[in-house]
Specification:
The complex is a heterodimer of chains A (117) and B (111). Chain A has 117 residues and is mostly beta strands. In chain A, 0% of the residues lie in helices and 48% in strands. The chains are: A mainly beta (117), B mainly beta (111).
Chain lengths: 117, 111
Amino acid sequence: DTGVSQDPRHKITKRGQNVTFRCDPISEHNRLYWYRQTLGQGPEFLTYFQNEAQLEKSRLLSDRFSAERPKGSFSTLEIQRTEQGDSAMYLCASSSKPGSFSKNIQYFGAGTRLSVL
Amino acid sequence: QQQVKQSPQSLIVQKGGISIINCAYENTAFDYFPWYQQFPGKGPALLIAIRPDVSEKKEGRFTISFNKSAKQFSLHIMDSQPGDSATYFCAAKAAGNKLTFGGGTRVLVKP
């Protein structure tokens, strides 16, 4: 696998339910990012990990959102008590380690589209 | 607060024409400026990127022009093709690696 993989591709849920998304980054990429993209807008940064450490979180990431990367490989993003305003595309990206030539390049997955009814 | 402003929101160009998309930023700490291309149902894919110490970068039909004093940069797509029809996003990165994206430009290339 040479790309960032996200699962599921689509998720439909009812308001109030919890959902969890998974991201598998490019092998050996130690940085992993989550973004949210609403229709007709650019992606907005949510959070990022270097290995298993969560280094930055956006103000957009409310208490209902939690992200983990327990072993420094795949990551999960959980949304508790979903609201209709959470409907969006959730994108994951990864990049290689600091100091490498391509350290700035973030490679994106195809995203998980969440619809909250 | 939108830190990267992108224009136009959409544009239509004839095959073979030039597409020009402009972005302006506010944060002088930004040190890396990529452009991403996104097709429907797909994630953004890096197209070309530039650092602020360079005024122009060209890769094939795609050119970035960068004006540090004006805090503006632009993407030029030369000889536009129908396959270039997509949404284009400019972005900027400061320390910490998070990208701040513009609002996007939907480009339609008519055959």
